[in-house]
Write a structure and sequence with these properties.
Helix content: 40-55%
Radius of gyration: 19 Å
Number of helices: 10
Bound molecules: 1,4-dihydronicotinamide adenine dinucleotide, oxaloacetate ion
Strand order of the largest sheet: 3-2-1-4-5-6
Largest sheet: 6 strands, parallel
Shape: globular
Order of helices and strands: HEHEHEHEHEHEHEEHHHEE
Distance between the termini: 41 Å
């Protein structure tokens, strides 16, 4: 009996140190903007089952009452509310700790991410203006493409509003990491759950730079041709999905997974969990480029 109590106490302490104990975990509100979309819906599901989320706010221009009603029936602690239309955006954002933005149009075959610029820049500008007003301290996870441009746009909106904090604005490039890990593990014959591959640069074509030379565990079974092929497949991962979906959009399920991984890292960082490391596209001094994706750790994720 006593050893069972000790065992469960030490399990609680362990979970609490990792940010998983409900009694030790701070209340955290997460808002998803574009929550009724292809990414938004599975991302809403994954955030609903994240034990670090106490309140989940689902915003879109249409369709959110249905998504919110559906997701809210899942028996996990997060309280879910749906918001629809511009007049409900402020309430959706109020008090948010993390705002995830998958709002905007996706690619069709033959398009580049840049072709989305005209529509998505306007959407992101409007949403970030509202974030500056209603939750200026939130960590912002930008998924909408082209990420290489939507992140600098968001930065300018926040600067104009006087709320910009470079440590709180993230372009979500986690899907590049997810793909690099999957493809590398597959080719090298390594267990995928043990594999790590940093991906730096940006989130479009040749700006996506998987660093297979820094992959762990290292593999000595891969040839130079293998590395070239893995690099190309990672860079073209988005296009591979766009073509396979043949006009029905771009990656949604793998992106929702990647978005949930990144948001979880942000929540852990806010909760003071040490050693949170993820790659993300942020304002940077790593190169001469003003924004660059690289490995982030303490300082970014613990800035809240
Ligand atoms: N960063 C990354 O690695 C990835 C980024 N993406 C990008 O994510 C974006 C969304 O993709 P999907 O979910 O597949 O598209 P989708 O069209 O299925 O969903 C987008 C949602 O955004 C909503 N929306 C449009 N304007 C809005 C506004 N002003 N406020 C709130 N919601 C608004 C739409 O109503 C729709 O529900 C695209 O730009 C896509 O290119 C997609 C995959 C990976
Ligand atoms: O390729 C696209 O348009 C969507 C995206 O960013 C990705 O899947 O990496």
């Amino acid at each position: 009996m006593r050893s069972a109590v000790l065992k469960s106490t030490s399990e609680l302490l362990r979970r609490s140190r990792r940010g998983y104990s409900s009694s030790a975990t701070p209340e955290r509100k997460v808002a998803i903007l574009g929550a009724a979309g292809g990414i938004g819906q599975p991302l809403a599901l994954l955030m609903k089952i994240n034990p670090l989320v106490s309140s989940l706010s689902l915003f879109d221009i249409a369709g959110t009452p249905g998504v919110a009603a559906d997701v809210s029936h899942i028996n996990s602690p997060a309280l879910v509310k749906g918001f629809m239309g511009d007049d409900q955006l402020g309430e959706a954002l109020e008090g948010s700790d993390v705002v995830i933005i998958p709002a905007g149009v996706p690619r069709k075959p033959g398009m580049t991410r840049d072709d989305l610029f005209n529509i998505n820049a306007g959407i992101v500008k409007g949403l970030c203006t509202a974030i500056a007003k209603h939750c200026p301290n939130a960590l912002v996870n930008m998924i909408s493409n082209p990420v290489n441009s939507t992140v600098p746009i968001a930065a300018e909106v926040f600067k104009k509003a006087g709320t910009y904090d470079e440590k709180k604005l993230f372009g979500v490039t986690t899907l590049d990491v997810v793909r690099a890990k999957t493809f590398y593990a597959g080719k090298a014959g390594l267990p995928v759950s043990e594999v790590n591959v940093p991906v730096v640069g940006g989130h479009a074509g040749i700006t996506i730079l998987p660093l297979f030379s820094q992959a762990t565990p290292a593999s000595n079974s891969l040839s130079q041709e293998d590395i070239v092929a893995l690099t190309k497949r990672t860079q073209d991962g988005g296009t591979e999905v766009v073509e396979a979906k043949a006009g029905k959009g771009s990656a949604t399920l793998s992106m929702a997974y990647a978005g949930a991984v990144f948001a979880d890292a942000c929540l852990k960082g806010l909760n003071g969990v040490p050693d949170v490391v993820e790659c993300s596209y942020v304002q940077s001094t790593v190169t001469e480029l003003p924004f660059f994706a690289s490995k982030l750790q303490r300082g970014h994720f613990n800035s809240g």
